[in-house]
């Protein structure tokens, strides 16, 4: 099974178990496991998903309560985990090797920031590539109607890391082709102008 198809089917299966009609936002969290290793590879990228079912937060879709997963009261589901027996991790590693990505390689700190000390890096090897693939899968789910069918209404998907770096906004915009996450994206643009 190709990695893209594995991710799509695994994510869809997990979301089918979520409370239908109650989910108001979805999180696709991509992060590097700095503490653990997968087959002795440090900083191995992982993916987990969760949802916000608090309808009271949907009235202000730019509020922190709406988009910040740390404030959500829902279980997090591992899709790709840095565990020796994880099928998703094995498929991810094979896919990254096909892409000629050095998995887990730390980025050069000197190249990770611009002249204004703004972070422009892309994380450890394999992280950015997984983030982009996950954004494409979310986009497909938005475009083919899977999200609308599951939850009964347009539902934003936030594709992000733990810090919500520049690439999180880029990935979230790509994941929501019909403007489902525009309020979140405008909020982050406004806060960066302050």
Give structural notes.
Strand 1 and strand 2 form a beta hairpin. With about 190 residues, the protein is of the alpha+beta class. A 4-stranded mixed sheet has the order 3-2-1-4. The protein is about 40% helix and about 20% strand. It has helices at about 5-15, 65, 85-100, 125-145, 145-150, 165-175, 180-194, and strands at about 25-40, 40-50, 75-80, 155-160.
Which residues form runs of ≥5 with pLDDT under 50?
190-194
Task: Tell me the total number of β-strands.
Answer: 4
Order of helices and strands: HEEHEHHHEHH
What is the overall pLDDT average? 88
Strand order of the largest sheet: 3-2-1-4
Proportion of beta-strand residues: 15-25%
**Can you give the helix content as a percent range?**
25-40%
Q: Note the total helix count.
A: 7
What's the SSE blueprint?
Elements: H1 3-16, E1 25-38, E2 41-52, H2 64-67, E3 77-80, H3 87-98, H4 127-143, H5 146-151, E4 157-160, H6 166-175, H7 182-193
Parallel strand pairs: 1-4
Antiparallel strand pairs: 1-2, 2-3
Helix pairs in contact: 4-6
Which key phrases capture this entry?
single chain, 194 residues, alpha+beta, globular
């Amino acid at each position: 099974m190709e990695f893209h198809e594995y991710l799509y089917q695994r994510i869809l299966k997990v979301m089918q178990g979520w409370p239908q009609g109650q989910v108001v936002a979805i999180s696709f969290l991509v992060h590097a496991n700095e503490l653990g290793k997968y087959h002795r590879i440090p900083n191995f990228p992982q993916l987990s998903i969760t949802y916000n079912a608090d309808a009271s937060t949907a009235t202000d879709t730019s509020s922190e309560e709406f988009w910040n997963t740390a404030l959500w009261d829902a279980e997090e589901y591992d899709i790709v985990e840095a565990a020796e027996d994880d099928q998703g991790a094995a498929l991810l590693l094979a896919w990254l090797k096909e892409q000629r990505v050095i998995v887990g390689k730390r980025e050069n700190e000197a190249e990770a920031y611009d002249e204004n000390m703004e972070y422009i890096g892309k994380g450890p090897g394999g992280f950015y590539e997984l983030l982009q693939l996950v954004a494409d899968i979310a986009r497909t789910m938005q475009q083919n109607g899977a999200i609308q069918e599951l939850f009964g209404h347009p539902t934003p998907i936030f594709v992000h890391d733990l810090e919500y770096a520049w690439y999180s906004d880029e990935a979230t915009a790509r994941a929501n082709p019909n403007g489902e996450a525009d309020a979140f994206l405008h909020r982050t643009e406004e806060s960066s102008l302050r």
